[in-house]
């Protein structure tokens, strides 16, 4: 195997830590051009150490089984705090949509003693956890299980959620991004969006949101420091946003 440069080793370390790194963010981090970063990424991908994404780089498929486990370990205390906020607010007897992500799996852990819940989810880990409770009715969509992410996504999944109406829909996101000029103007109110890395992930979250009476977002503070490309919806369209510090109506 070709020997890595110091910068390539550092890029690889960031990818393993964050799972995804945007090219422009890496360019700023290392104070080099985006063309230089692309050459580094090409070299890492050629060696099978990374995988290209639109506008960035992530873990390769051969390492993807580690991806879900690494996310479980990331910001774990903060995610537990979010789960502890959310779970008590879900009434017994509710119909709940649960989206993908490790924070939502932690919420599922705290729902195992709820009564008469109907849970519709494409989060396989959450479904597995909730299967311990006979008082929880679980609905899963058809489709291919992404073993490295612990979920099911795709067009059929979005259609599946549209067949239900939920009291509460809970989604996570890959990033929170400000996408308009207001973000660069101190006097203007920023317009922030929940974002996903892939359009199919965003489409599923949109289906959850569209067919829920209450729309909740769970997001650790690190999501405000990341970048993703696929829009879900503006933050102001959520009824509640949960972070480790507090929830916001």
Break the fold down into its secondary structure elements and pairings.
Layout: H1 6-18, E1 20-22, H2 23-30, H3 34-46, E2 51-53, E3 56-58, H4 65-73, H5 76-86, E4 95-98, H6 102-109, E5 117-121, H7 124-130, E6 136-139, E7 145-146, E8 151-152, H8 155-161, E9 166-171, E10 175-178, E11 192-196, H9 199-210, E12 212-218, E13 230-234, E14 240-242, E15 247-248
Parallel strand pairs: 4-5, 4-9, 5-6, 9-12, 12-14
Antiparallel strand pairs: 1-3, 2-3, 7-8, 10-11, 11-13, 14-15
Largest sheet: 7 strands, mixed
Order of helices and strands: HEHHEEHHEHEHEEEHEEEHEEEE
Span from first to last CA?
Answer: 52 Å
* Unreliably modeled segments: 62-70
Which keywords apply here?
elongated, 3-stranded antiparallel beta sheet, 249 residues, Arc Repressor Mutant, subunit A, 7-stranded mixed beta sheet, transcription regulation, DeoR-like_C, Rossmann fold, DNA binding, alpha/beta, DeoR/GlpR family DNA-binding transcription regulator
What can you tell me about this protein's structure?
By secondary structure, this protein is an alpha/beta fold. It folds into two domains: 6-63, Arc Repressor Mutant, subunit A; 70-248, 3-Layer(aba) Sandwich (Rossmann fold), CATH 3.40.50.1360. The chain is built from nine helices and 15 strands. It has helices at 6-18, 23-30, 34-46, 65-73, 76-86, 102-109, 124-130, 155-161, 199-210; strands spanning 20-22, 51-53, 56-58, 95-98, 117-121, 136-139, 145-146, 151-152, 166-171, 175-178, 192-196, 212-218, 230-234, 240-242, 247-248. The strands form four sheets. Strands 6-5-4-9-12-14-15 form a seven-stranded mixed sheet, sandwiched between helices. Strands 1-3-2 form a three-stranded antiparallel sheet. It has a three-stranded antiparallel sheet with strand order 10-11-13. A hairpin with a 4-residue loop joins strand 7 and strand 8 (151-152). Helix 1 crosses helix 3 and helix 8 (155-161) packs parallel to helix 9. The longest helix has 13 residues, at 6-18. It is elongated, with a radius of gyration of 19 Å.
């Amino acid at each position: 195997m070709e020997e890595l440069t110091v910068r390539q080793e550092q890029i690889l370390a960031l990818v393993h830590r964050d799972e995804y790194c945007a090219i422009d963010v890496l360019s700023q981090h290392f104070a080099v051009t985006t063309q230089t970063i692309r050459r580094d990424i090409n070299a890492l991908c050629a060696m099978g150490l990374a995988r290209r994404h639109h506008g960035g780089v992530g873990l390769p498929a051969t390492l993807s089984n580690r991806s879900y486990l690494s996310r479980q370990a990331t910001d774990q205390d903060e995610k537990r705090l979010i789960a502890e906020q959310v779970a008590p607010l879900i009434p017994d007897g509710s119909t709940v949509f649960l989206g993908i992500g490790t924070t939502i799996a932690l919420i599922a852990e705290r729902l195992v003693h709820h009564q008469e819940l109907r849970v519709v989810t494409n989060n396989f880990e959450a479904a597995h956890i909730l299967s311990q409770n006979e008082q929880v009715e679980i609905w899963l969509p058809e489709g291919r299980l992404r073993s490295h992410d612990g979920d099911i996504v795709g067009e059929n999944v979005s259609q599946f959620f549209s067949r239900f109406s939920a009291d509460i829909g809970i989604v996570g996101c890959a990033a929170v991004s400000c996408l308009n000029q207001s973000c660069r103007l101190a006097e203007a109110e920023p317009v922030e969006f929940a974002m996903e890395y892939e359009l199919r992930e965003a489409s599923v979250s949109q289906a959850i949101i569209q067919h829920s009476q209450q729309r909740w977002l769970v997001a650790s503070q690190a999501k405000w420091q990341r970048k993703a490309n696929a829009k879900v919806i503006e933050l102001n369209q959520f009824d509640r946003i949960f972070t480790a510090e507090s929830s916001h109506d």
